[in-house]
Design a protein that fits this description.
By secondary structure, chain A is mainly α. Chain A is built from 18 helices and 2 strands. A two-stranded antiparallel ribbon of chain A has the order 1-2. Chain B is mainly alpha-helical and about 300 residues long. Chain B has 11 helices and 4 strands. In chain B, strand 2 and strand 3 form a beta hairpin.
Chain lengths: ~475, ~300
């Protein structure tokens, strides 16, 4: 934002300005003071409970440590900005024109090689893990993690249709995930339908709900749309909790039938998967099957999205995202365009939900709270709203990152035995969302990939598009 | 009849709390056009600040007068929560001004997640009960079936406090130069800046005012319910936002009116229909109002400029 607007005089001023230690210290001191002020009640006192009474204990040390950290960070930020300002102000002749252009992203060239690479890793993942860990049962943790990440990749891609392509901010996406999960859970436990029949049914039901919820909100835009979809998401969750006759309330639905390998169950005995294929029985077969199932579902989502982008409806979505009024003036039926986006996005959410139910074997309303919606939205936004590969990377970082944090045992050595990094997962998550918006509001991969090209394929920088300024 | 009057009193109390939170939403939306999603969590944070200082004052410093303690707690909570409000605006929203439209909202969701988990990590996940601070009730009249209609001192404190603070802030917005600057920024930020209004400072002060009113609401919430947990910010936050929308977003009296209506609807719904679905009722009102009456009761209809 500030780079193109630097004037000649500002540049001259920036050249002479080197790292001003005194100003940096002053500012860092001020920030530290504010941090200390902020930490006074919440950090420096802890309320503890004994019986019915609360009592306080003070821990000023912690508050001081946090203050010191902020002080240090602030000085580092100053040093960093000073050196960057210096570099910007003294450009080498080669980059003399750089300020004029929209800044190219560091990730611009990544996607060309990244897509085959990621695909290869994703397909070979169980084999790689099997080789690294040296056994099926040892690799269970990693494959479970892979399934979790892929579920979020799929949800991210599904929401990407609504948020990234059509530009409709949906904070209640988890509602469709819930509809899918409960569809499978209820249909299979009540009517005994198999997973392969329920999967499309769950998708259809979720799409149906997408239209029902989408219809009233057609006139709303931006923040209002976000809040109403949030309200819908919460309503669905509250109904799932309170409609005990059907959903079994907060206790959830358990003992959901397991998926079969196209009719062959994963059991040890006669006619089971292991026996049919002449393998030794292992519980891991089902897990690996789940892995490939969610991978296939996610890739299906991606494939359909990529194809839809080239169809008139996909182009209408993107046009709608960039400028709704222009879109209407050109005769695009915005009602249908928005509803198809909601319905198709919801359908993939429903698929993912039904997969979730069959993998867990148990669903309860607590899995579908607002935080889940926020995480999926964060994945889409950090991925760069509309970029498929960006969403995948963001899902790996956001879902896999906390797991890495959990495994860093040296953190325990630093902070003591009672330290559980998982507690800080959401804290860092919230901070990450803010930092991402401040640092790179258009996500990791902000380029727009044109769906129509003349001779040469050029990426369009996200900062050149009009979206959202209307 | 007795039940009706009793619920009316309860509803007005609850509505006052919602109204106080709703003002924060409505002022911020009015001035920079964003839904400050983190406002509900600022409210929750302020309830924690109030809780901690109430404990400090009563157990460590041994202040026995509850009214005095409450008064000091209120002042401290307002100051510290304002600091939070200011810091949040400075760190998470100001760098995004002029960025694309959804960026501040997403940043606000991040702040909301951060605040609730910060409190969870720092203070633990369990509910924090306080000993009842004010117990006395006034029996207004006795029903035929022996059902007493009563108003408690804390309900009186809450309603009076709300009325007093609202008049003060109403005065600030209508009569002082800060209020004038605020209304100018609301109409046209660029023009206000050209005419010498310090827009950044005005926006910061808007956040400070919103946060300090949320602190009053938080203290009153603690006084009324006597228990607070880290997750208590989300639902009251959404309800207060509903109140702000219902009253007409951007309108100060609208926010209070909306808060009272939401509070009344919620208590009457709980009393006469089902307590389980009271949140569903509130969320449905939000959706219905936004769909059919987006400008609210006292709001100005939004004109779409091309």
């Amino acid at each position: 934002m500030n780079a193109p607007s630097i004037t000649a005089s500002a540049q001259a001023a920036a050249v002479t300005r080197t790292f001003d230690l005194k100003a940096a210290l002053k500012d860092a001191f001020r920030s530290a003071l504010i941090t200390f002020g902020l930490s006074i009640p919440i950090l420096s006192f802890k309320t503890e409970q004994s019986g019915a009474d609360l009592y306080l204990s003070s821990r000023w040390g912690l508050a001081l440590i946090v203050t010191a950290i902020v002080f240090g960070l602030r000085i580092l930020v100053h040093a960093f900005t000073a050196s960057r300002a210096y570099r910007k102000a003294t450009p080498s002749p080669k980059q003399a024109t750089e300020l004029v252009h929209a800044q190219p992203s560091a990730f611009q060239h990544v996607s060309k090689f990244a897509i085959p690479f990621f695909l290869g890793v994703a397909v070979a993942f169980p084999v790689l893990i099997y080789l690294i860990q040296g056994g099926l049962n040892e690799s269970r943790y990693w494959i479970d993690l892979g399934i979790l990440i892929l579920t979020y990749v799929m949800l991210g891609w599904g929401l990407n249709i609504v948020v990234g392509l059509a530009g409709l901010l949906d904070l209640g996406y988890v509602a469709f995930y819930a509809v899918g999960a409960y569809s499978y859970a209820l249909l299979s436990t009540t009517f005994g339908l198999s997973f392969w029949i329920c999967l499309p049914l769950a998708g259809i039901l979720a799409a149906f709900w997408g239209i029902i919820l989408g219809f009233p909100v057609l006139r709303l835009r931006g923040d209002y749309l976000a809040i109403v979809t949030l309200a819908f998401g919460e309503i669905i969750r509250l109904v799932l909790i309170n409609w005990v006759d059907v959903t079994n309330g907060a206790a959830g639905i358990s003992s959901i039938p397991r998926a079969t390998f196209f009719g062959i169950p994963f059991t040890a005995g006669e006619g089971g998967f292991a026996e049919t294929f002449g393998l030794e029985f292992s519980g891991m077969h089902r897990i690996i099957f789940f892995y490939y199932l969610i991978l296939a579902l996610a890739l299906l989502t991606n494939f359909v999205t990529m194809r839809l982008r080239k169809l008139p409806v996909g182009r209408a979505w993107e046009a709608l995202r960039e400028d709704e009024i222009a879109c209407r003036s050109l005769g695009i039926n915005t009602t249908n365009t928005k509803l198809t986006a909601f319905a198709i996005g919801a359908m993939f959410g429903g698929f993912a939900g039904s997969f979730f139910a069959v993998r867990q074997g148990f669903v309860s309303p607590e899995s579908f709270n607002f935080l889940e919606s926020a995480i999926i939205l964060a994945i889409v936004v950090m991925g760069g709203m509309g970029s498929q590969i960006g969403v995948a990377i963001a899902a790996i970082v956001l879902v896999g990152g906390p797991e890495v944090l959990r495994n860093l045992t040296f953190l325990k050595a630093v902070f003591g035995e009672g330290f559980d990094p998982n507690e800080y997962r959401l804290l860092l998550f919230g901070l990450g969302m803010v930092a991402m918006m401040v640092w790179r509001p258009r996500g990791l991969i902000s380029e727009r990939e044109p769906s129509v090209i003349l001779k040469e394929r050029k990426a369009i920088s996200g900062s050149l598009v009009k979206e959202g300024h209307g | 009849m007795e039940i009706f009057v009793q619920q009316l009193i309860n509803g007005l109390t609850l509505g006052s709390i919602y109204g106080l939170i709703a003002i924060g939403y409505t002022m911020v939306f009015g001035i920079i056009g964003m839904v400050n999603f983190a406002h509900g969590d600022v409210f929750m944070l302020s309830a924690f600040i109030a809780l901690i200082f109430f404990l400090i004052l009563t157990t460590w410093l041994g202040i026995s007068s509850v009214v005095l303690a409450l008064f000091i707690v209120l002042i401290i909570a307002m100051v510290l929560t304002s600091l939070w409000g200011w810091a949040i605006e400075r760190v998470a929203y100001r760098p995004l001004r002029g960025s694309f439209r959804l960026a501040p909202l997403i940043s606000a969701i991040g702040v909301s997640i951060f605040l609730s988990n910060f409190v969870q990590v720092a203070q633990g996940a369990r509910n924090k009960p306080t000993p009842p601070m004010v117990r006395d009730v006034i029996v207004l009249f006795q029903g035929e079936s022996g059902y007493n209609v009563a108003i408690s001192y804390k309900q009186i404190i809450i309603m009076v406090m709300t009325a007093v603070l609202l008049s003060i802030f109403w005065y600030i917005v209508q009569k002082t130069s800060l209020g004038r600057a605020q209304r100018a920024c609301e109409q046209d930020r660029k023009m206000a800046a050209l005419l010498g209004v310090n827009v950044d400072r005005t926006i910061s002060l808007t956040f400070v005012i919103g946060a300090s009113l949320a602190a009053v609401a938080g203290t009153m919430y603690l006084l009324y319910y006597g228990v607070v947990s880290f997750a208590d910010g989300f639902v009251p936050g959404v309800k207060a936002f509903t109140a702000a929308v219902l009253g007409g977003i951007g309108s100060l009296p609208g926010a209070v009116l909306g808060g009272l209506i939401i509070g009344l609807i919620e208590t009457f719904w709980s009393a006469y229909f089902s307590i389980e679905y009271k949140d569903v009722a509130a969320f449905s009102i939000l959706a219905i109002v936004l769909i059919f009456m987006p400008s609210g009761i006292l709001g100005r209809p939004e004109v779409e400029k091309v």
